[in-house]
Amino acid sequence: MEMQQVRYFLALARTLNFTRAAEQSNVSQPALTRAIQQLEHELGGPLFHRERQNTHLSELGKMMLPYLEQIQTQTEAAKAQAKASKKLDNVTLRIGVMCTIGPQMIADLIVRFRVAHPNVDLEVIEEGSAELQEMLSKGDLNLALFGLPEALDVRFHGLPLYSERFVIALPADHPLAAQNVVTCRDTHEQPYVSRTDCEIFDYARRELRAAGVFWKKVFSSERDDWVQGMIKAGLGIGFFPELSVTDPALVTRRLIEPEFTRTIMLVTVRGRPHSPAVGAFVQQARAFKWPPGALDPMPCGSDDCELEAADS
What we know:
By secondary structure, this protein is an alpha/beta fold. It folds into 3 domains: 3-86, Arc Repressor Mutant, subunit A (Orthogonal Bundle), CATH 1.10.10; 91-162 and 264-287, Periplasmic binding protein-like II (D-Maltodextrin-Binding Protein, domain 2, 3-Layer(aba) Sandwich); 163-261, 3-Layer(aba) Sandwich (D-Maltodextrin-Binding Protein, domain 2), CATH 3.40.190. It has helices spanning 3-15, 18-24, 29-43, 59-86, 103-116, 129-138, 201-210, 224-232, 276-287, 302-311; strands at residues 48-51, 54-57, 91-98, 120-127, 143-146, 156-171, 181-183, 191-195, 216-221, 238-241, 250-256, 261-269. The strands form 3 sheets. Strands 3, 4, 5, 6, 7, 10, 11 and 12 form an 8-stranded mixed beta sheet that branches. Helix 1 crosses helix 4 (59-86). The longest helix is centred in the N-terminal third of the chain and has 28 residues, at 59-86.
């Protein structure tokens, strides 16, 4: 069954006149008649009874009418949606965000995108990096923001957005808070409050153990606000991306020897054609002013600066 057969059938069902139906369909009458005959052959019986000046729907034609009307309606709706997609109208963009990237990091980007494209609906899905990659592969997400300690899987393409170091998060009265820079050795056997979905911790733990440094996990949660609340209460130290510490009562200190960093990327599936909405979001992300200098040296006291200068 072809769409032109459906259109010709519906035109003839409206007019009950082959000549007028052909005129409305912008086709010759013989061509319309052949198309109707082919459709009748496919459906297994006459769709119209032709009785001199009295053309009318057969019983089969009456049965088929609502189905073919539905096909026509759905086809027109699909065409309209495709046109709207090209114009970025009534489009939903599904964006995955790694759970350690707080809304404060991407809120301005989303607001600017919405101002530029007010008819695009944004849906943000928060998951761990492994889940985001799986959802991208299946087409459940249009794009995602995350960073990994290792290189991206070859299935994906990543646009680097910003980089940041991992820091130690502490309550203000913690002894290590008096230092401007904390070495990993300084944290040996410290009680540790864990973020369950820390994408870098397995890698960091291997590096710490190789350096002879062990932390004592005393609490873990999927929620950053719970983790930060426990750190503030004095339960233990935290290991955070520096831009993800949101509780103003906490202090952060640069962690060195070794130092851990991450680069947040805008990730899409390599080779998969982008919709206009995805392309527009990628352009907005490219133009966005991300946090500058996240990997510049953190503020230090004069003694620490002089020590670093002497070491260099």
